[in-house]
Design brief:
253 residues; alpha/beta; TIM Barrel; three-stranded parallel β-sheet; disordered C terminus; hydrolase
């Protein structure tokens, strides 16, 4: 029994950013990725024969970094999805409007960005609902995608997402750039370029404290991938390009 409890504690306290998002401890049963993927409850990446990928940016909007990223995206005719924090939407509504005006997509990333690893259903409802309202008030747009902070999920979070007509989106495990750590421009770029494949959902951030490494890395990544024949779309556009629904990308960690 002691050994079982120790293993359970280790599972619960695993770092989400280690590359394997783990279910919240509020779940009655921890199910593996394939269970949620086959049901369409959660999307990590999209099986497609087309050379398309989706860049995603979390934690914004930010008055300085988001416009810099938008400039680079514009330069390479790239569209992307921005998972915004509701509290920051209320502070910078003009930035969210700018994102949408340039043809990008805005998704829900909670209101205060709390850890969803131990979140109650009531708090999840509040976090998601308030952010939906903030986006709608700022832009007149209703988000259709949700990404939980840190990638934490359980059945309650999935249910709340569905109740708000939101598709829960995570990211390709091999495409977590960890740019939030400001590891260096070239390291961010290498992470994407050395692992890229069709249907990837790439995790980046448009708000990293005192860092512009993400926008600088994009200046390396986008021209190289464009040279390789890739195009850059929103997550919703990528979902529309999915191959046979019964075909799944092989999971790698």
């Amino acid at each position: 029994m002691l050994k079982f409890k120790t293993m359970l504690i280790l599972l619960v306290t695993m770092s989400i950013y280690s590359g394997n998002a783990v279910a919240s401890p509020t779940s009655q049963v921890v199910k593996d990725r394939s269970y949620y993927e086959e049901r369409g409850d959660i999307v990590w990446e999209v099986p497609t024969q087309k050379k398309t990928i989706a860049f995603t940016f979390d934690d914004g909007p930010d008055r300085k970094q988001t416009p810099k990223i938008l400039e680079v995206l514009d330069q390479y005719q790239a569209k992307a999805t921005f998972f915004v924090v509701g509290e920051r939407v209320e502070r910078f509504p003009e930035i969210v409007k700018l994102v949408l005006s340039k043809g990008h997509e805005v998704g829900n990333h909670s209101f205060y960005h709390p850890s969803f690893q131990n979140i109650s259903k009531e708090k999840a409802v509040n976090e998601i609902g308030k952010t939906q309202q903030a986006i709608l008030k700022a832009t007149g747009h209703t988000a259709v995608l949700f990404r939980p902070p840190g990638g934490s999920y359980d059945q309650n979070i999935i249910n709340v997402s569905k109740q708000n007509n939101l598709q829960l989106i995570l990211w390709s495990w091999h495409q977590d750039t960890k740019d939030w750590r400001a590891p260096g421009v070239q390291r961010i770029a290498n992470k994407v370029l050395k692992n890229v494949r069709n249907g990837d959902i790439i995790l980046m951030h448009d708000y990293v404290y005192n860092s512009s490494q993400t926008s600088e890395a994009l200046k390396i990544i986008l021209p190289e991938l464009k040279k390789q024949g890739y195009s850059f779309v929103t997550v919703s556009q990528l979902l529309s390009q999915k191959d046979n629904p019964n075909t799944h990308i092989k999971v790698t960690q």
